[in-house]
Structures are given as C-alpha cells and as structure tokens.
UniProtKB/TrEMBL annotation:
Organism: Actinocatenispora thailandica
Entry protein name: Pyridoxal 5'-phosphate synthase subunit PdxT
InterPro entries: Class_I_gatase-like, PdxT/SNO, PdxT/SNO_CS
Top-level lineage group: Bacteria
Catalytic reactions of this protein: aldehydo-D-ribose 5-phosphate + D-glyceraldehyde 3-phosphate + L-glutamine = pyridoxal 5'-phosphate + L-glutamate + phosphate + 3 H2O + H(+); L-glutamine + H2O = L-glutamate + NH4(+)
Binding-site residues for L-glutamine, renumbered to this chain: G68, E69, S70, R129, I158, R159
Entry-linked NCBIfam families: PLP_synth_Pdx2 (TIGR03800)
GO BP annotation list: L-glutamine catabolic process; pyridoxal phosphate biosynthetic process; pyridoxine metabolic process
Keyword Lyase: yes
EC number: 4.3.3.6, 3.5.1.2
Active site residues according to the UniProt entry: C100, H199, E201
Gene that produces this protein: pdxT
Family stated for the protein in its record: Belongs to the glutaminase PdxT/SNO family.
Length: 222
C-alpha cells in the first residue's frame, strides 16, 4: 500500500541537506512597494516570490508585508481570501517582517485606524497609525538599531506609525532620537515577527532584510 506523503516524511526524505535548500521568502503583493522588497530580499540562497493567493502563501517559508496603506491592505486581504490563512500562518510561527503599513498589519491593536480595519496580528503591541502628524508626514532620521550591528540605520518614515506600547514578550529594537517624537518606538521583535515603522527597502542598506533572512533561517533549522 502506498503511504501518504506528509510534510514530515518529505522532510525526512530530504535529510539534513534540506536546510541548504533555498529559503523561500514571500512578499505580500496586495498593494504597496512590493518590488523594492523582492529586490532587497532576493539573494544568496533566498528565493523571493510575490504572494497574492492562499496557495502561494502555503509555498513560502517566511513573509514580508510591505508598506502601503493598511486600510487598503485589510480590504484586499479579505477580498483575496488571505486574512484567515495569514492569521493562521503568523500565529503558527511563520517568520514575518512588516514595514510601515506592514507593521500596522502585525499589530494586535491599532489606534487611529478605520473602524472596520482588520490586522493579521501577532505582535503584542499597540500601534498608532499616521502617528507622526502632519508637519512630519515624511522624514528621515538616524536610528540605533539593536541586533543589526554597525552604524546607525538611516531610516525613512512615510506617514509612519509608531508603537505606543508593547507587551512583555516584545523586544524594542529602535527608537527615534530627537525632535518632537524623541524616544518613540519604531522597531520591534516578538519571536519570529519583526516590524519597523520605517522603510529599509528604500535605502541601499540591506541590514534589516539580512537580519530578517537570518531569523527566518534560524527558525527553519530549529
Ligand atoms: N499611513 C499608512 C497606513 O496607515 C502607512 C504608510 C506607509 O506604509 N508608508 O497604512
């Protein structure tokens, strides 16, 4: 009798070598700056793919949620039948990185959102949408970013959220220095989930993406 092939037996058949297989990282491609993230994430041993359908989501090891507009992303996730599959994968530990609107989508609680706005959740944090206000709709700031090493990160903020508060499991990785928003939290990690209020895909500095890829690899080999 033929045995059903389960993902466990598949992994067993591949043996120890499977951890050398390319890591497949999806970029949620409902809306936003998808192309820039695909370019930033693809590289040595990493295949980057746009994700628009549940079947595409099932094929990735990790996911990037780009910046854009979280209310639109919420509508499209529902229209494309991705809201529940994404919530389930994230809750089950899929390494996920959200930038700007992507950070909002990973928040358990959103302030100043649209009343019917949905998130995927996963990070025990309260995020305020469009938090930096009108005068500083867009700005750039140098942030000390724990975990990525080296020089401060040149961070680009575009109608960005900030993290108003975090739960006990959340590690704060970066805060804005100076100005009216001094000390506001703009990068966090909880387990396999990483989020930044800023857009590292718009600068040539790939340290945040590399850090995320490392985190995703570590999650696969455990
Ligand atoms: N203000 C946007 C929102 O609420 C986020 C902006 C961005 O991703 N650049 O979704």
């Amino acid at each position: 009798m033929t045995q059903p092939v389960t993902s466990t037996s598949l992994h067993a058949d591949l043996g120890a070598g499977d951890i050398d297989a390319p890591l497949v990282v999806g970029v949620l491609a409902l809306q936003g700056d998808v192309r820039e993230h695909l370019r930033a994430i693809a590289g040595d041993g990493v295949t980057a793919l746009p994700v628009r359908r549940p079947a595409e989501l099932a094929a990735v090891d990790a996911l990037v949620i780009p910046g854009g507009e979280s209310t639109t992303m919420s509508n499209l996730a529902i229209a494309f039948d991705l809201l529940d599959p994404l919530r389930q994968r994230i809750a089950a530990g899929m390494p996920t990185y959200g930038s700007c609107a992507g950070m909002i989508m990973l928040a358990d609680t959103v302030l100043d959102g649209r009343a019917d706005q949905q998130t995927f959740g996963g990070i025990d944090m309260v995020v305020r949408r469009n938090a930096f206000g009108r005068q500083v709709d867009s700005f750039e700031s140098s942030v000390e970013f724990a975990d990525i090493g080296g020089a401060p990160f040149h961070a680009v903020f575009i109608r960005a959220p900030w993290v108003e508060s975090v739960g006990p499991e959340v590690e704060v990785l970066a805060r804005v220095a100076g100005g009216a928003a001094d000390g506001r939290i703009v990068a966090v990690r909880q387990g396999n989930l990483l989020a930044t209020a800023f857009h590292p895909e718009l600068t040539g500095d790939l340290r945040v993406h590399r850090h995320f890829v490392q985190l995703a690899r570590a999650a696969r080999t455990h």
